[in-house]
Amino acid sequence: MKWFIRSAVVILVLAAAGLVFAGNYFYQYAFVPAPKDFLADEEPVDSGKVDPAQSWFTGETRSRWQITSDDGLRLSAIYLPAADPQQKTAILAHGYMGNAETMWQFAHMYHELGYDVLVPDARGHGESEGNYIGFGWPERKDYLKWIDKVLLEKGQKEKVTLYGISMGGATVMNTSGEQLPDNVFAIIEDCGYASIKDELIYQYKELFDLPTFPVIQMTNLVTRLRAGFFFTDGDVRQQLAKNKTPILFIHGTADTFVPFSMLDEVYAATDAPKERWEVSGAEHAKSYSVDPKKYSDKVKSFLKAYE
Questions:
Q1: Of the candidates 103, 167, 102, the residue with the CA atom closest to the CA atom of residue 140
Q2: Taking Cα atoms as reference points, which of 77, 166, 175, 93 lies closest to residue 126?
Q3: pLDDT (tens digit per residue) in 161-213
Q4: Collapsing DSSP states into helix, strand and coil, what is residue 107?
Q5: How far apart are CA 222 and CA 232, in angstroms?
Q6: The whole model's pTM is what?
């Protein structure tokens, strides 16, 4: 009998240790900034030629802005003024393992529409501090601070719009559920996911083809211990339910990284003025690349309706 009890205890201890290892492994795989072998390039297609828009983006007009997050991280952003300032600023949010530098084409698009442009490096990315990826959940509070920074620097009459792609799309959707100043008049998101949990489970099944229980639950606990939040709290749909800002949802029909089906979920989650645009044949974060002019025209039309 004693032998049986000891054996059972050893088995339980080994199982618990294995579960902790698995939770930490998946946390490291998903949440720790590092090269990711499963990632497709989220930046629009680059021909390899020097683009005038990219030259503008890296030119002399740009500067760096900084803020400090609520939890003490030093965050950095690229700021580019409009050629003819019109008291309106677009704040852009990049994707998972991207950075502000990868957003040059979108920055130029807004520049061509007459906007000053602010492109933050998300925590744990680019020149911003942080040792984890927040998947757009803690970043929502960072974007509130970036909005405040714009109003501090540009004045309380500045109009502000938010744009995000992929994880950045989730970031601006999460931000939409917070108490936003009236200056924020519109939000545009491209291929953001419905929740961190749903996206992680989808990727876990795609990458490992293993049962999610109890690894996902343990990873959630590890995330709370190491990053300070439960990723199950990051439900974009719940944030959108509180949103009052007009929002445009964009998603490519051939997206297999953030499933196209998630567009229905996020679109249905808000009662605010809204539009949806399904880009036929576009893969993840490639809707702009399919037809840059049509993309820009769609963004321009939506913004003009609420400016």
A1: 167
A2: 77
A3: 999 999 999 999 999 999 999 999 999 999 999 999 999 999 989 888 778 88
A4: helix
A5: 12
A6: 0.92
Burial class of residue 243 (count of CB atoms within 10 Å of its CB; 0-12, 13-18, 19+)? buried
- CB-based burial label for 165 (10 Å; 0-12, 13-18, 19+): buried
Average pLDDT over residues 119-131: 97
- Other C-beta atoms closer than 10 Å to the C-beta of 33 total 16
Res 121 pLDDT > 90: yes
Confirm if 301 and 293 have CB atoms less than 8 A apart: no
Distance, in Å, from the CA atom of 133 to the CA atom of 96, rounded to the nearest integer, reads: 8
Beta strands in the chain (DSSP E): 63-68, 74-80, 88-93, 116-120, 159-165, 184-190, 247-252, 274-279
How many residues would you count in the chain? Answer: 307
Q: Decide the pairing of beta strands 74-80 and 63-68.
A: antiparallel
pLDDT at 181: 98
| Burial label, 290 (beta-carbon count in 10 A; 0-12, 13-18, 19+) | middle
pLDDT digits (tens, 9 = 90+) for 204-259: 898 887 788 888 999 999 999 999 999 999 999 999 999 999 999 999 999 999 99
Segment 102-106 long-range contacts (CB within 8 Å, at least 24 positions apart): 102/42, 102/43, 103/165, 104/53, 104/54, 104/57, 104/58, 105/43, 105/44, 105/51, 105/53, 105/54, 105/288, 105/292, 106/163, 106/165, 106/288
pLDDT at position 186 is 98
Q: Are 265 and 256 in contact (CB under 8 A)?
A: no
The encoded tokens of residue 94 equal: 């990049």
